Amino acid sequence: MAELLSLAEARAAVLERVVPLPAEPVALGEAGGRVLAEDAVSTVDLPPFPSSAMDGFAVRAADSPGRLVVVGSVAAGAPATAGLRAGEAMGIATGGAVPPGADAVVRIEDVVLEGNTVEIPGVGEGKSIRPRGGDIREGEVVVEKGTRMGAAHVAALAAAGAAGVSVSRRPRVAVLATGSELRPPGELLGPGQIFDANGVLLATALSAAGAEVEVLPAVEDDPDAHRDALERGLGADVLVTTGGVSVGPHDLVRSILRSLGVEEVFWGVAVKPGKPLAFGVLGTTLVFGLPGNPVSTLVGCELFVRPAVLALQGAPEPGPVYRDARLAAAVKRNAGRDELLRARTRFTDDGVVVEPVTGQESHMIVRAAGADALVLSPRGNGELPEGSHVRYFPLA
Ligand code: AMP
Ligand code: MG
Q1: How far away, in angstroms, is 11 Cα from ligand 2 center?
Q2: Is 297 in the pocket of ligand 1 (CB under 6 A)?
Q3: pLDDT for 153-172, tens place per residue?
């Protein structure tokens, strides 16, 4: 590992190799979590007609205050058949179309009903009326290209009349854990064996980032087993392996990837944990070789793989998005590598405070599971004292 890339250099080298995936149409009900491939515009003015914001009476402001004759009523979806004339009021429900001639709505709580008349207080023009197009106008952009869609986005698109949208295809991600010691969780452990934590880690994180993940069966540290599985994984848009990228005699991933034609872009990042991370490409397939300690896999996934998966979908800011915080306790810095500490965030009157969890070693995935954030401790000498300003990003 001649020269370690900085975090920023490595991230740039990855994102540079991302070729965004083509678009495909999906029904709105399938669009949650997907990234919009083009601006989505409204097919209507929204609201499509002036509507009442209240249950009450549609009136002419000029008739107020006063006693008016109730000439009918409007329900949502059932507009009036005639307009409103001077001296008249019409009952109206929230969402009902304001009848022509009316220019205000008086809340039902503010009137006195007597027979077929209603006494109303003074009311200003436009009161409790939602104007046509007040939310958006026909032809205007409802959701911008590059937006990863949540519930409010798909609701806005539905309200604007879209039955479907154009989104980037989901990246196909193959996950392969390597290591002769690995057993699937649920089986019995033999001597020297441990459960595979990385397969589900990556599947969970990357599905949440929009990928279609296939977890291949873990392979032993054997060249033939590696070759078959890696070859299969290279058919995906992204191949993520764990383990076997360090300098031990059983670390086979890099050499076999190379023999399969993968061009290694870098190996070694000045980050802790996760230093021996390897990244390469075969055509447009991105290949990440993450070191096997589960916390290294977690950190490598958050720093590099998740951003790549989001960038493949056309997300303009694939992250991680850092925020500011202060340290709850002093931490020792690493001289040569930026460190990502697992920490818990706390919101105080003074802003966010982050407290590193106990147990920062890279095999301690259970300790890491007690954290909700990764805090960047930049490389350097000495320590960062309690109260230092640091940057962090939340763990999903
Ligand atoms: P390696 O990167 O292959 O040298 O592995 C580093 C450490 O991570 C070793 O202690 C492995 O046993 C452990 N490890 C590797 N893969 C996994 C995995 N999928 N789940 C849990 N631990 C793993
Ligand atoms: Mg190994």
Answers
A1: 24
A2: no
A3: 999 999 999 999 999 999 99
